Amino acid sequence: MEATAIQPQSYPRTTPEGWSHTPQDRLIVALDVPSAHLALDLVDRLEGTCRWVKVGLELYCAAGNVLIDTLRSRDLHVFLDLKLHDIPNTVAGAVRTLSNVGASLLTIHAAGGEAMLLAAAEAASIHAQSPQLLAVTVLTSMDAAQLAGIGLMVEPAVQVLRLAHLAQTSGIDGLVCSAEEIEPVRTSLGFAPFLVVPGIRPTGTSIDDQRRIATPRDAIQRGASMLVVGRPITQAGNPAQAAQAILNDMARPA
Ligand code: C5P
């Protein structure tokens, strides 16, 4: 059953093709499996409940652009989550190469710094069909202790805000952050960035390796543009049922 449109608190300034206010256009299922065969099997088991899928490092290394073509031919929108992080010249080259593979969204690490972000934004601007770039701020699997472990003595929210500003001023419209940082980011940036939020855990499900988590409904109510959900759907006995329960939760009124 088609869930009704959500009225979000804030509207993103730029949205990728295939995005709308309905839950189906705001849920991305992370196909974190090691082969095209397993990915397409998962897509079959979703039984049309979802319109967006995420191809991450594991699957892209195994199946590459051919799989993106196949997913597109099944009318799915593709979020290519490669989290590029290298010197500016290398990242710009990768963004150019990925500009026509059919993905709607592509991630780069904001921690790559201003020059890298500027180079990526410029590379993406060359091709009209280039995916919209999202800057990954602080991974949702990291808490303050883990940031300290890599020499960053800051709360995750502070670091996310710092990187969000950097990404914005470098011409990157979209961000990946946890639900905990949505409100501070929207308040602080003073515009409506496109916010993609992983670390989603329906009530009662395992948090796995994630640290900064929220339920689907909470993340939407706080102002997420899209949610990324992997294991709560992909490892469920019935992925279509798990996805539908998440879509229903997203649509629940405040
Ligand atoms: O299985 P789970 O729902 O935890 O999967 C979350 C997905 O979101 C994974 O594919 C992971 O790579 C991705 N992701 C994340 N944190 C980020 C960016 C992406 O968990 N900051």
Provide the fold topology.
Blueprint: E1 27-30, H1 36-45, E2 52-56, H2 57-73, E3 77-84, H3 88-97, E4 105-109, H4 114-126, E5 132-136, H5 144-149, H6 156-169, E6 174-176, H7 182-189, E7 194-197, H8 216-222, E8 226-229, H9 231-234, H10 239-251
Parallel strand pairs: 1-2, 1-8, 2-3, 3-4, 4-5, 5-6, 6-7, 7-8
The structure holds cytidine-5'-monophosphate.
Write down the oligomeric state: single chain
Under the CATH scheme, the architecture is Alpha-Beta Barrel
Could you name the CATH class?
Alpha Beta
Number of strands: 8
Spatial extent as radius of gyration: 17 Å
- Name the shape in a single word: globular
Give the strand content.
Answer: 5-15%
- Percent of residues in helices comes to 40-55%
Uncertain segments? 1-11
Q: At the third CATH level, what is the topology name?
A: TIM Barrel
Bound molecules: cytidine-5'-monophosphate
Q: What is the H level of CATH, i.e. the homologous superfamily?
A: Aldolase class I
Q: Give the helices and strands as they follow along the chain.
A: EHEHEHEHEHHEHEHEHH
- Tally of structural domains: 1
What does this structure look like?
There is one protein chain. The chain is α/β, with parallel strands linked by helices and 254 residues long. It has one domain: Aldolase class I (TIM Barrel, Alpha-Beta Barrel), CATH 3.20.20.70. It is 40% helix and 15% strand. It contains 10 helices and 8 strands. The protein has an 8-stranded parallel barrel with strand order 1-2-3-4-5-6-7-8, surrounded by 5 helices. The two termini are 21 Å apart. Residues 1-11 have low confidence and may be disordered. The structure holds cytidine-5'-monophosphate (C5P). Cytidine-5'-monophosphate is lined by residues 30, 32, 54, 56, 81, 136, 139-140, 176, 198-199, 208, 210, 228-231.
